[in-house]
Amino acid sequence: MLTGHRSAWRRRTQRSRAARIAVPLAIPMALGLTLGVIFAVSSSGNATKINQTAAGAAATPSASASASAAASASPTAAAAAPAVNMSCAVIVPPNPLSAQGLATPWQLTGPNGTNPQGTGCTQANAAVNGTFVQATIINPRTGQLAVYNPLVITQGTTPAAAPVVPALPAGAVVVINVGNNGQNLTLLNTPGTNSIAQGRCVNGLNGSIFGEDSYCNGPRFFQTAFRDIARGRTVIPALGTTNAGLPCPSTRSFALVDQDQSDNVTASYLINGNGQTAQDTAANAAALGATVIKNPSDSLVLNSFVDAATGCTPFTAPDLANNNTPTTSLALSELQAAKDQQAPIALVPLNDPMTLVNNAFSTTKTNLYRQGVGQPPVSNAQVNDTPAGYCMNLVNVQPNFLTKEQTVLANATSPVAAVGNNLFTFLSARLSASFTNLNCANFGLKNPVTLTLDGNGVAIAATLSLTQQTATAANGGGAAMAGAGGTTSGATGNPAPAHHHRHGQKAGGA
């Protein structure tokens, strides 16, 4: 198990929020003041550990929240903790959109290409800085979709098993999405090449990266996919309904989104005791007997936990590295959401921590991020696109869904046992932290979640207010800015604001 540090989900809420949390200070400190998720799974595939913290909740500590918890979270102890580096870089292979490029490992390394071991930027340190790459492929002539997860290795190591070279159809259009369990990940060219430009890769706005996410060739892939969907070549399954008769949630549903929706990937890798990685395929698992590492993502929470609990079916496509076994991907989730999500539709908002520039709203950066997940640009004509509208829908829609599905969610496994003792309490804690990280209180809204925490800061009960609220402020005092600098291929410069979850960073790992 690759543990030893708080997960990415836990780190997501590391902004200063103590004054907003209606519990003794020791409780949120024990929670890590973050939301994020990191999956470290044993080779059996049955034991999943995700660390996430819930913050920003109107939480009620249970009787077991003793003085020992407060002592463990004291300022003295916090000051003694060594700083953990959460900023890394990854080297993009040449021609990353080609079959050979997909089969060439990406290389995780230290900031600006410094020593990976000395900075903790290794795949062996996956719980803190693990990096994952996922490609979704469309055949523009037939509309057929497929998935391939390119391997990421630590620079200076070799793969535990050679990656499979995918068989791509002629004219294949590929999107690559990159997720990271840390806080900031910068793309680097392979020395002597223009690999970032070759892949049409985007790391953020010039001088302001997204944080842990980036993508390659997003606009072209989604344009092709939407065209083939309109022509009937690509068939996207309907979201369907839950066993309770509710619409199944998607990555664009306010019933499920968090502070930084549509981020990270569903890719996983195998890792051996030497820190070498391999693609997570049946053949490699049988030959290597290695541990599985994963990337927290909204799609993973949806597909692996919420869908399973509520009776919904994830959208899958053949995995070209794993003998065409059906698998999920971020892009598949976004395609299904684009086709079938009904109003109100959640799109990456201006107050998403990953799209801020110097802690201010940026329409340009938000639109850049949206291009990588096939979402339309910000529109003043859509109230849901405003930060106030996003927060209002979040507090009005999600509590209703969680309450109506509470029975099945409460009987389902929590993605992060350190955050909630079941799926219902986990999602409630995640919602509460998202309310805080999106600064929803600035719009005259109230946190709809009241948590009961045990002595370890784990949510063991949650009460959700179903009172419908109306935002009373347009933008919470933040000034939306056009954002200068244009598109950025492999943007470098300032890291994303530290808001973590993750991304500044994310909440609840998804």
Main traits of this protein?
510 residues; alpha+beta; eight-stranded mixed beta sheet; five-stranded antiparallel beta sheet; 16 helices; 24 strands; 26% helix; globular; disordered N terminus
Explain what the structure shows.
By secondary structure, the protein is of the alpha+beta class. The protein has helices at 8-11, 26-31, 67-72, 75-80, 99-103, 116-119, 126-129, 195-198, 218-230, 282-288, 298-310, 330-340, 363-372, 387-404, 406-410, 423-437, and strands at residues 39-41, 48-50, 58-61, 87-92, 106-109, 131-138, 145-148, 152-154, 173-180, 184-189, 201-205, 207-209, 214-216, 268-271, 277-279, 291-294, 317-319, 325-327, 449-453, 459-464, 487-489, 493-494, 499-500, 504-505. The strands form six sheets. Strands 6, 7, 9, 11, 12, 13, 21 and 22 form an eight-stranded mixed sheet that branches. It has a five-stranded antiparallel sheet with strand order 2-1-16-14-15, covered by helices on one side. α14 (387-404) runs antiparallel to α16 (423-437). The longest helix has 18 residues, at 387-404. The two termini are 20 Å apart. The relative contact order is 0.19.
